[in-house]
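pinning this so it doesn't scroll away 📌
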Amino acid sequence: MEVERKTSEERADALEESMMKQLHVSAAPAQAPKLRRGTGVLFGGLTPAGLPLDLAVLAPMPPRPTIVDFFKLRFMPHTVTHMLQSANDAQKKGEPEETVLACLLHDIAVNLIKVDHGWWAAQMVEPYAYVSEKVSWAIRHHQALRFFPDSSVGYGYPERYVQIFGQGYAPEPYIRAAYEQARKHKWYMEARMITVHDLYAFEPGVKVTLDPFVEVIGRHFKQPKEGLGFDGSPVAHMWRSLIYPDNPL
């Protein structure tokens, strides 16, 4: 039987190729993600804490959906409970209605996208004129403030963030820059109060519904007559993405 003989150059090339393959394998993650962690929870994947989400068949939205319809038919149940408990805590402790509204709406964008959800949520509500600039500013800046304690109001770094981000996590420079800018602003406490009432664990035995907040929404959120997503605003496409999350393109 004839044995195939390789020249020294061929052997060297084969060794180099083998080493490159080994390098590629060792550099690759142990298990590639099937879905990016920053994906909005309505689209599946994981909660911010890393827990898997079960998706259900969605009910159709009404032709002219209101923000209440989104709470009932599109926002994932655990995000609704979280926002209701935050708003309930603010209301119980005597916060102004604008602060209660900010707590109620601060995490709506987590359903669309987790990354920079404070900025996204602020954009989603800004065009609806009854929402004051102060409310959208607070929603936007809670994104950065939540990483930085403020002992003057009893806000400490959340233990939940150690679980999510790991011990010793340092926020990205743009987050710190936003925090530094926000703490010098006249509305700093508006955003800080969202973090104070941003409950990171569901309160046992506390049942919350949207009913006590419907009138608050009515006084502070201008519902477009065409329906959210169909009013031609600069953010209508964001609401439509929540209406039609199963559209392939």
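📌 and the second one:
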Amino acid sequence: MKRTKLLALALAGVMVLALLTGCSDSSSKAKQVEECFRSLMKQRGDYQKDETLDKKLEGIAQQFQPDWLASGGGGGDRLTNEAYHIIKNELGDYLVTGSVRLWVGEVKPGQSALAQAESMKQCRGIRYDSYGEYSGPQQPMCAIAFTMTDKKSDGHRYYLALVTYATVKTPQN
């Protein structure tokens, strides 16, 4: 009898642990997807994390709408004019020259972090050219910023990543 009770208690404990294991908050899942995305991108180059770029992406994520992606010919997705100008304006006071690409993926709770990272779609790039408008200090940068949006008009959340090859304005002392 004691053995049966101990076995029942042990099984109940295992069930509770199994239940709790499945409960992770969305921010930790987003971190896992980000790590997978960064790992996949390492095949293309060595990207750093940039706090300023992260903050800029947060501003873009607040404005993001699912209809920003307009299917284009020649493969890949292109951004709508509205999306293009929002991103260009958000980053314009930071990037001097180079390019940035937005990657978008819908949050799918049942998918693994790797599957979600692999399913993200790359949009065509946005170019930045200073044409002599900025003459202060500059620093070359290859960086990735990553975030997850709040629910949008279609009821879904999205992962957004900015992949940047650019020179950035550095603060003057």
